[in-house]
Amino acid sequence: MKVAVAGCCHGALDKMYETLELLQRRHNVRPDLLLCCGDFQAVRNEADLRCMAVPAKYRHMQTFYRYYSGEKKAPVLTVFIGGNHEASNHLQELPYGGWVAPNIYYLGYAGVVRFRGVRIGGISGIFKSHDYRKGHFECPPYNQQTIRSAYHVRNIEVFKLKQLKRPIDIFMSHDWPRSIYHYGNKKQLLKMKSFFRQEVESNTLGSPAASELLQHLKPTYWFSAHLHVKFAAFMQHETNSKEELPKATKFLALDKCLPHRDFLQIIDVEHDPNAGDSLEYDAEWIAVLKATNSLVNVTQSSWNMPEKNGLHAKWDYSVTEEAIKEVLEELNHDLKIPCNFTLTAACYDPNKPQKNMEPVHTINPQTTEFCAQFGLTDINDRIQQAKEESSGRGECEEEEEEEMDSTGSAEEPSEYNTDNSGLSSFNPDEIMLDEEGGDEDLSTCSVDPSPDHPPEFSTSFSDIRIMPDSMAVSSDDAMDSNNEELERAGGSKELEEKSSTERSLKRIGGDENGNSSVKKIKRRNQAIYAAEDEDK
């Protein structure tokens, strides 16, 4: 079957679906499935806009609300993961995944589904070391910290995915797996994105959590976005035993959705011709969710997942064939995901704007139904209970203080700052967006796996390219790239100082109070992937 893969959508659903229709008219190619690798921006109304950690100039309604309201319907089944430009309050309603609109499915914090026998997994958000070991504790209205931490990857999601044993066909992450750039045309990547050089040379560009999953899951395809550049790589995995067959992953990062940018890719994926056309649950993944349910954490406390270190009675939460069979029996062998989309918020009306609409913490009926069916913890319900218990304890303490000291004030400041209009213009998680239309020629905004494999589409149809039969980079090309980078790293001090000076021009300036004083040109990404835990 034909699968279309898109990079950062940024809410431009009309543009994305129009491009697919254009593909069908011009080339008679109709994808059976569309995958989006984050920054989907499922914004329903003004309150959702306030839950996006982006500068004010990027807070645009875009076109998702038309699909949410039913005014339009996605012409092709669309499955997406979250990134760091999201209406976090909306996606938080569906921690285990669910429909955000008819025919548009969100995979949740982490998830695995099946379509026509093809197994598709993904993990939402981006890696940030100081939040990685925390639970999912955030809920709207967010403050300046939680509006960002809400989309940071957590170790429990990685742990769940690492319990999978059966092969994964396709996997999606928003940020790139760390080190993947060593398996592609690194020289060309750095030529186009020179401000990545320091992270690449220090091997700090990308997510170590995603890299860990790549090594464990070894999917056939891995798709990412986030860095707004197209890049392909081919990674041959090491085998753990002589009996294990060698595996390889074809990696592709997609550009963002803008006119005249190469933001869509079409691939042919082997599928089960006898399978239906409905999106289905994955029985092993459901069994893993049930097995790991006791590990759910909704606190800010940092903790480690169980491991074989003598500190945990149980560390292996992978599931048996019997457990998978039990899931199938619970569902009467009908794995079809119910089309139970429900409106949970008012939809934007361009004729009646509501600029003061406040975000609220909502428990989505889809999640309630899913948790009840499989005996899982409703994370949002647990968060709500924790808030109520905390509020109750606070009231009791205030009453006691009033009795002891009548001059004391019983009023405490709100835990949340509901006004995010004053968010700092600098977001350490943000990849700066180019202005509409882009400032790079198409020929310089795509890093193909090898010059020996040109795209099959003509350059006149610039938004889409069909993936070549092989995404492999020749070992010679990869070694040449590595050797050149090693030589450059040990080159003259003068060149190194010049490179450092050029990089400093791309940083965001600021005074000692952190106030921005220099116009943003390009933002480097060191802050996103800090190797050391920033918790103090």
From TrEMBL:
Predominant subcellular localization, coarse grouping: nucleus
Comp. bias (Acidic residues): 396-405, 431-442
Stored CDD domains: MPP_Dbr1_N (cd00844)
Cofactors demanded by this protein: Fe(2+); Mn(2+); Zn(2+)
Compartment(s) where it occurs, according to its Swiss-Prot or TrEMBL record: Nucleus
Stretch list, region Disordered: 385-536
UniProt GO cellular component terms: nucleus
Keyword Nucleotide-binding recorded: no
Signal peptide feature range: none
GO BP terms in the entry: mRNA splicing, via spliceosome
Keyword Translocase among record annotations: no
Superkingdom of source: Eukaryota
One term of GO molecular function: metal ion binding
Lariat debranching enzyme C-terminal domain mapped to chain residues: 235-380
Annotated Basic and acidic residues bias: 385-395, 485-510
One Pfam family from the record: Metallophos
Keywords: Hydrolase, Iron, Manganese, Metal-binding, mRNA processing, Nucleus, Zinc
Extent of Polar residues compositional bias: 415-427
SUPFAM superfamilies tied to this protein: Metallo-dependent phosphatases
Family per similarity comment: Belongs to the lariat debranching enzyme family.
Name of the protein: DBR1 enzyme
Origin species: Thryothorus ludovicianus (Carolina wren)
Lineage: Eukaryota, Metazoa, Chordata, Craniata, Vertebrata
Protein's gene: Dbr1
